[in-house]
Amino acid sequence: MTTAEMIVEIRENCSELGVEWLRDGYATEDTNRRKRVRILPKLNLCLKKLVWRGMKQCYIQKTLTAGTREYALPNSFTNIKFAHLVDPAVSTQLYPIYNTSLTRLNALYPGMVNSATTGRPYWFYLQSKILGFNVAVDQAYIFECLADVMPTELVLPTDEPEDLEELFHPVLVSGATYLILRDKLGTQEFNEGQKIRFYEHKSDWDEGVKMVGGTYEQRMLDSPDIAIKIEEYRMNMGNGGGRRGRST
After folding, report:
1. Which pairs count as long-range contacts for 101-107, CB under 8 Å and 24+ apart, including other chains?
2. Are residues 162 and 108 in the same domain?
3. C-beta of residue 151 within 8 angstroms of C-beta of residue 161
4. Residue 141 phi, psi dihedral angles, 5° rounding
5. Is 162:96 a contact under the CB 8 Å cutoff?
6. Is the model's pTM score more than 0.90?
7. How many structural domains compose the chain?
8. Domain limits for position 133
9. Rounded CA gap, 215 and 217, in Å?
10. Exposed, middle or buried: residue 48 (CB in 10 Å: 0-12, 13-18, 19+)?
């Protein structure tokens, strides 16, 4: 199903419940047209929700620079699931590192973030696409993480959703339909039959989100490299440090 086909189906779904005058893309300078509900922004919101449920996860490695505390990340980064540091001298040596916020760091350790202190960090944060640590690193550790990565937004009806196989495109249709109808509930009374259809779209979206999340999560776990790294992370969280590989 192409994006254009999804738009047609969303229009039909909304039309059944009396919601008309939908527009495809983003608002123009025409103020009269800007007031109308637009379909592509709703599809993009649904894509973001699916990303948060694991639709697009990537295992990332970044070599850090000694003496540097903050690093710019691509705009597509939206969330880091877990992370650890790899010792540059002994690649099998892993160090746990914990997710927090810059606000919390400043509250717990006033002045530390802006000091000249270097060392092995124990905390990291992601803020405005900046990856930061509680201290500047004292050597070139490798930062490894599993992160959610946002797909390119749909801007035109000719754009196609990245990394979401066609099997799950009806989930986007249900989600966008539900969001449009939900926005209209405050300005339009639905009869009983319309309410039933509205909640059917909501149910299809909710169940579809669970299905997509479960499918992609299982695929990640089925990948041997990812499964091993996840297991390493869990072990590190329990013992404060560890080495790659399994004990015999």
Report:
1. 101/125, 101/127, 102/127, 102/132, 105/134
2. no
3. yes
4. -65, 155
5. no
6. no
7. 2
8. 57-149
9. 6
10. middle
Distance CA 17, CA 68 (A): 56
Residue/partner pairs of 83-86 with CB below 8 Å, 24 or more apart? 83/124, 83/143, 83/144, 83/145, 83/146, 83/233, 84/144, 84/145, 84/232, 84/233, 84/236, 85/120, 85/121, 85/141, 85/142, 85/143, 85/144, 86/141, 86/142, 86/143, 86/144
Indicate whether 115 and 167 sit together in one domain: no
Average pLDDT per block of 10 residues along the chain, 248 residues long: 89 85 64 67 89 76 91 81 86 84 85 80 88 91 86 84 82 92 69 82 91 78 61 52 41
Query: Of the candidates 149, 169, 202, which is a domain's last residue?
Result: 149
Using the 8-state DSSP alphabet, how is residue 235 labeled? H
Cα→Cα distances 99→5, 84, 139, Å: 41, 10, 20
Residue type, 185: L
Same-domain check for residues 45 and 61: no
Residues 172 and 13: their CA atoms lie apart, in Å, by 13
Judged by DSSP in three states, 208 sits in helix
